[in-house]
Model the fold of this input.
Amino acid sequence: MSEKLTFTLTGNFQYDLGILGLKNVLDFFEIYYEYDDYSVSILLSEWNKIGNCSYFFGFYFNGIEQIKKKFKLKQNNLSITDFKKIILSAKVQPFNTSLESLIDFFNISQNKKIEFASYPALSIFNVSHLNVFNPGLLTKAKKDNQIDFFYNLYMQKFKGAKPSTDFNNKTCDFCQKYEGIPINRNNFIFASSAMNQGWYERPNIHICNYCSSLNLFSSYGLLKTGSGERYLIYSSNIKDLEKDNNILANSFEELITKYIENIKAETNAKDKFFIKIIFSGQNPDLDFLPFSTELLKFFIENKNLLEDLRNNDFVGIAKDPIIFSYKDTIKAILSGENLLYKADFIINCIIKQKSGNKNFKGFDDKAIKSALILLMLSIKLKKKEENSMIDKDLIEFIEFGENIRKRLYVGKNQNTARNKAISFSSAIRDSVNESKEKFMETLLQLSIYSQLPIPQNFLKKFNDPNFNYKEAGLAIALALMSIKDKE
Ligand SMILES: [Zn+2]
Done:
């Protein structure tokens, strides 16, 4: 058996992402490899060929439509199968031959050839290895008429490495097998950026040529969405990495929704992370959203509420911030933000809009429903804590609010009733944000005005020091606004 090159998951997401990307390329080209839960092994003698294939995979990765758009191609009969066939020929042919067939196939004009040949480097790799595949170098390639300029840069990364005979401080910290050089942003995605200060704290991290070239596959492991953001649902085993990261989505909302749809009750959230990556020369950014077992359970148990929230998705403009209700809520849940606070904020916006404040737009009936769902989700998230309501309590307060609202409309001019409802809603919201005493005072006024007594069991609840009166108040405030004006 020939010598093998084995890459093992390290727990460093940038490195492990490379392993996932490598596996995707191997699968695409049907190249022989072995793998288990934690590692992928290929034949060492094939490393160069795999590098070659991975460059060509770059033509395919963003989709053929992208190429057609970028190079203004008119053909509309490009099938993925044909395209794949041509790229596959890269396995046995030298770069220029494969490239010429691609250029012929796409009918690329003479003056666009170099740009076309650089496409994978500049559209795929430069986003993760900014220093190496610098778009500025295209001018040089054109000046020297070097069609394989970026390809050569890429393939230089597939050099062999010297085995580290005695374990020393130059040994690669990732594979522990070969001699390495200090890590930097030329050989490792995001290595020396400010977002990754850990690398600075350990300046002597070394990486060998093999592990550094593995890192070039990292783009191929990421989930793409329509926006510039890319995602990785990170786990510490290859099976989950693969399973979680094959979702096709056009947006973060869709990605999350599809992910939630497919998670199973037995999913083990240990070590799972949502990682958001923004590749940009000016503002590269990384965001880690931990995925705990509790959160997974929460998503599974509340699938229906989340589905409701998605169906009532709205975009609200509140002077400064723009609120994307579903997207923002999912992010808030993942990052452990207070949902009650979010519900309160939206309720405030609804009140402002209903009171005629022109700075607030989009807070319609869907916003009311969304705020109510947020309130429910907030209560469910806090279930384990003592000081929260249960569903039954919430419904009682909503019903009370609805009964009051009906009373407000009886025998009154519609507009007067509507304005009264909004102003009571606003007063209730203000009061819960002030104090329990203020809330009870306002509730009493409301009760007197509408001639509807406060239920006896409410008073019992309010006397319980652990009872969350804010949730109760916000539920009433919402119910006061929740039916259309004409009643
Ligand atoms: Zn290594």
User: Anything to note?
Assistant: Residues 172, 174-175, 178, 180, 208, 210-211 surround zinc ion (CB under 6 Å). Residues 193-197 have pLDDT under 50 and may be disordered.
